[in-house]
């Protein structure tokens, strides 16, 4: 007898090791592809993986091979027109027939090597760039958690969930309902028999007939099942998403001439990370985009990242707008307000104290957290110096100067620390 | 026997398989195979998922293997094509081991499972056990153990010396895999226990040998300058990886061991590369014959046969040269047709067959099969057994592509005066010696700059492909000193084709730095 070994359930994902080796090897290309993908994505779109393509020349595994020149002989099938000694024009482009020889058997195409990165792998690369600590990574990558909750009873389910009291209550009701007409008739018969027995004339036959009917009815009543399949009731549990709170996230960005594409890309990652963090804690998140130069304006995401303005910078205009929107649409009693501001630090000199004032007196009191990043490689600007003073009084205010992507995470350190899962 | 008893004996049909049904099929197939005197290793059937099948694919068809990114690449490529439905997974993977392991895939229908059992577990199995190349080059009783040893050893090296160092080394070895086989010498038998026991001994011994070789150099160089320097190696060496393993001056013992592992794996697959047509044809012939015999006995349902024949004929399809999906000669089609043809020549030879195959025409086909299966490889099998009738059936024609002429040239077609030439051409096409460049280790300048020189002997004026530069860089990494490649010109002189200079000192190697 043959031995059939069922291996279907062991060593699932055995290829993961080799897959990881592959990812490790082409980290540079994958990171670039992920960076490109992030630039093209909405900051809320972090639920899917990404298609990565790597030029196949980077992947080639060389070995000694013949070149195309020289003399090649090859045998083909399906001769339909050639006689020995015929000359054939050399096919252009090196198709399947004709020259090429052994080399073309490999069928190695010049296309890029394309493969799918899963959501987790995608986030992993994203987090890598941002130098996120591991604990934070796992926290962020977690999908929405559910908790189960009782939700009444259902008529089908697994035996362990049978609710005995409910089931028996149903059974009693059913027995009563089905037996009621029969029981009524029995009572009627009882009355009739009694009446007949009272009568002096002998009604023996009739009484016997009634008795017989009575016993038949009793048997039918007895035959009603004590409990039936459709009496069964099962406890019902449903899964509901855990946190049912809402947050609003304000993205405030300077779009004056000095903010170039590079700086905007950095800012985008900053916003994405905040979004990821919020998504972990809140069921519903609104995102409001405010861009400003000398005047602030609420815009949609596309315009936020892709349009460019020139001219001066008045940061306070954006903060005022944000305060107004919060007051108007997002009362802090019902919403958790988060602010994220990105700028290259340029501000009109007289404006910086005003900004500080707005934050200090109004906005920070409305916000759960407000983070400011200054994307610059140069000297600290006046806005930075003003803001620095705020950190002393406000624990919900964080600021960071950013030169490269790794600097983003420290802005959130306080935030991540404060909220234990 | 009456019709009713036959009907009741029928094997289960329908698409869904069960372990009992597969067992029943296997029993019947084994019985018929034994009647045909197929000599096989014991069979071990394993049921796996499509993911596991892709995985086995990716690691060159082996159940265990060491980890390397190239296998990950293979897996991703296979997975992508499979998910897009561009390819059905091959319905068979069979391991040349004792017992012979045949994989069945969960998703397949009962008919396909039976087909795979007949094809792989009896067809290929018998070929592995009988063919002289497999008998000489592979050790089926030890291969799985050896691969386990290899995987663990390489994993240990990764821990000790870093993943990068090991990966670099494996990349270099893989580049030289095709020139890492002995074509003529018989390798020693593998055994896990001996392998482990000898491994450490070999490490120290080899290192001592190499040290010895280089230690004595300075004293002699001054004394012997007048004499003609003795050649090293005395004879050109065809197995470059073996040469590296034994003589590369700067490799550390663990690196030599990894070179050895890659070399062993390459050697193990060498016979498969040389017997594709024969082996696939043989297995196809037997699944066809075994299942048809069962059908004649009344054991198989008509629906089973319909599905089987549909699948069989799509695998055996040979497009013509001008079809858009033409991709060379289908080894299944050619091999199957040749074995069928040999059987025909044995059973009902024509006059032409008697003239071409006086030895086998009219002989016992089973004995002829056994002889042919045991003693040939693709190149000699075709040279010996390709009949004119088959060349006509396939309408074969040979085309010569000479880059010095403006046109391609049809050198032979399926006609009386072309048969012999055509057969020779096709046989050559399966000759690894013609298909792969002939490159050998020529000399080591061990009194000078320690450079290693390879020689390329061109065949039909074919130059080396572009990848040669990359391969030579890998070789230089292994050798540690300059490497050169010379091409032998038709007039006997040589020209320097490629040179890769490198001076790696033991002290500055990356691995060392990482450890300090």
From TrEMBL, chain A:
Annotated Gly residues bias: 92-104
Xref: InterPro entries: UPF0229 (IPR006698), vWFA_dom_sf (IPR036465)
Coiled-coil residues: 186-213
Keyword Transmembrane helix among UniProt keywords: no
TM stretches of this protein: none
Region of interest (Disordered), residue spans: 83-109
Highest rank taxon of the organism: Bacteria
Signal peptide boundaries: none
SUPFAM superfamilies hit by this protein: vWA-like (SSF53300)
Assigned keywords, A-Z: Coiled coil
Record's keyword annotation contains Transmembrane: no
Similarity section: Belongs to the UPF0229 family.
UniProt xrefs under NCBIfam families: PRK05325.1-2, PRK05325.1-3
Protein name: UPF0229 protein FHP90_09640
Native source species: Denitromonas ohlonensis
Taxonomic lineage: Bacteria, Pseudomonadati, Pseudomonadota, Betaproteobacteria, Rhodocyclales
From TrEMBL, chain B:
Domain of life, source organism: Bacteria
Every SpoVR protein-like N-terminal domain range: 16-433
Any single Pfam family the record assigns to this protein: SpoVR
InterPro entries: Spore_V_R (IPR007390), SpoVR-like_C (IPR057008), SpoVR_N (IPR056174), Ycgb-like (IPR057270)
Domain SpoVR-like C-terminal: from-to ranges: 437-489
PANTHER family assigned to the protein according to its UniProt record, in alphabetical order: STAGE V SPORULATION PROTEIN R
Protein's name in the database: SpoVR family protein
Source species taxonomy: Bacteria, Pseudomonadati, Pseudomonadota, Betaproteobacteria, Rhodocyclales
């Amino acid at each position: 007898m043959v031995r059939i070994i069922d291996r279907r359930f062991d060593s699932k994902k055995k290829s993961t090791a080799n897959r990881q080796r592959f990812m490790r090897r082409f980290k540079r290309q994958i990171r670039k592809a992920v960076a490109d993908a992030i630039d093209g994505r909405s900051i809320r779109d972090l639920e899917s993986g990404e298609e990565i393509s790597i030029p196949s020349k980077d992947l080639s595994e060389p070995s000694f091979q013949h070149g195309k020149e020289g003399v090649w002989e090859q045998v083909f099938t399906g001769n339909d027109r050639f006689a020995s000694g015929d000359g054939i024009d050399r096919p252009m482009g090196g198709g399947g027939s004709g020259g090429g020889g052994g080399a073309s058997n490999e069928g190695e195409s010049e296309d890029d090597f394309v493969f799918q990165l899963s959501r987790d792998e995608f986030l992993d690369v994203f987090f890598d760039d941002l130098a996120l600590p591991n604990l934070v990574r796992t926290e962020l990558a977690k999908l929405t958690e559910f908790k189960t909750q009782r939700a009444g009873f259902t008529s089908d389910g697994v035996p362990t969930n049978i609710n005995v009291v409910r089931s028996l209550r149903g059974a009693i009701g059913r027995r009563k309902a089905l037996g009621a007409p029969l029981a009524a008739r029995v009572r009627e018969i009882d009355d009739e028999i009694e009446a007949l027995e009272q009568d002096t004339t002998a009604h023996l036959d009739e009484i016997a007939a009634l008795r017989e009917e009575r016993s038949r009815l009793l048997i039918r009543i007895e035959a009603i099942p004590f409990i039936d399949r459709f009496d069964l009731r099962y406890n019902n549990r449903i899964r509901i998403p855990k946190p049912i709170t809402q947050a609003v996230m304000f993205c405030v960005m300077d779009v004056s001439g000095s903010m170039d594409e590079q700086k905007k890309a950095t800012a985008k990652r900053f916003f994405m990370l905040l979004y990821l963090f919020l998504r972990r804690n809140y069921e519903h998140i609104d995102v409001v985009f405010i861009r400003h130069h000398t005047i602030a304006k609420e815009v949609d995401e596309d315009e936020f990242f892709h349009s460019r303005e020139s001219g001066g910078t008045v940061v306070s205009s954006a903060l005022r707008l944000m305060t107004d929107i919060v007051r108007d649409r997002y009362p802090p009693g019902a919403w958790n307000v988060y602010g994220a501001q990105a700028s290259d630090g340029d501000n009109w000199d007289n404006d910086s104290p005003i900004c500080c004032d707005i934050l200090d007196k109004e906005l920070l009191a409305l916000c759960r957290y407000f983070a400011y990043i200054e994307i610059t490689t140069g000297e600290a600007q006046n806005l930075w110096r003003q803001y620095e003073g705020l950190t002393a009084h406000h624990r919900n205010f964080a600021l960071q100067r950013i030169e490269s992507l790794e600097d983003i995470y420290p802005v959130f350190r306080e935030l991540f620390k404060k909220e234990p899962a | 026997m009456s019709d009713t008893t036959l009907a009741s004996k029928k094997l289960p049909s329908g698409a869904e398989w069960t372990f009992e049904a597969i067992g029943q099929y296997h029993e019947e197939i084994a019985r018929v195979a034994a009647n045909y005197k197929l000599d096989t290793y014991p069979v071990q059937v394993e049921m796996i998922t499509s993911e596991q099948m892709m995985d086995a694919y990716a690691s060159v068809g082996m159940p265990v293997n060491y980890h390397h990114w190239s296998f990950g690449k293979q897996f991703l490529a296979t997975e992508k094509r499979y998910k897009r439905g561009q390819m059905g997974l091959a319905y068979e993977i069979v391991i040349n081991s004792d017992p012979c392991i045949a994989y069945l895939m969960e998703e397949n229908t009962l008919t396909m499972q039976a087909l795979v059992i007949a094809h792989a577990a009896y067809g290929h199995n018998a070929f592995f056990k009988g063919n002289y190349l497999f008998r000489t080059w592979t050790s089926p009783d030890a291969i799985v153990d050896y691969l386990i040893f290899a995987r663990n050893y390489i994993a240990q090296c990764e821990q000790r010396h870093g993943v990068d160092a090991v990966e670099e080394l494996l990349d270099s070895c893989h580049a030289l895999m095709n020139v890492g086989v002995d074509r003529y010498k018989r390798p020693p038998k593998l055994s896990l226990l001996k392998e482990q026991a000898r491994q450490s001994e070999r490490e120290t011994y080899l290192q001592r040998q190499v040290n010895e070789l280089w230690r004595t150099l300075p004293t002699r160089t001054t004394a012997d300058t007048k004499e003609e320097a003795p050649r090293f190696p005395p004879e050109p060496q065809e197995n470059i990886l073996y040469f590296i393993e034994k003589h590369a001056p700067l490799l550390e013992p663990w690196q030599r061991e990894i070179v050895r592992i890659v070399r062993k794996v390459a050697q193990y697959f060498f016979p498969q590369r040389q017997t594709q047509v024969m082996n696939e044809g043989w297995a196809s012939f037997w699944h066809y014959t075994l299942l048809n015999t069962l059908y004649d006995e009344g054991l198989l349902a008509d629906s089973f046969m319909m599905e089987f024949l549909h699948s069989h004929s799509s695998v055996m399809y040979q497009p013509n040269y001008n079809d858009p999906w033409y991709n060379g000669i289908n080894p299944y089609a050619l091999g199957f047709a040749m074995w069928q043809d040999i059987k025909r020549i044995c059973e009902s030879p024509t006059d032409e067959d008697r003239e071409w195959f006086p030895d086998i025409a009219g002989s016992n086909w089973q004995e002829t099969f056994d002889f042919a299966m045991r003693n040939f490889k693709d190149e000699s099998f075709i040279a010996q057994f390709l009949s004119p009738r088959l060349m006509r059936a396939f309408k074969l024609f040979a085309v010569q592509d000479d880059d010095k002429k403006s046109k391609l040239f049809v050198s032979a077609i399926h006609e009386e005066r072309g048969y012999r030439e055509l057969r020779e051409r096709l046989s050559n096409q399966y000759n690894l010696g013609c298909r792969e460049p002939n490159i050998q280790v020529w000399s080591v300048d061990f009194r000078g700059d320690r450079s290693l020189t390879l020689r390329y002997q061109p065949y039909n004026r074919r130059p080396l492909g572009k990848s040669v530069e990359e391969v030579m860089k890998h070789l230089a990494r292994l050798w540690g000193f300059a490497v050169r490649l010379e091409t032998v010109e038709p007039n006997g002189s040589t020209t320097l084709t490629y040179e890769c200079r490198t001076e790696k000192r033991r002290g500055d190697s990356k691995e060392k730095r990482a450890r300090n």
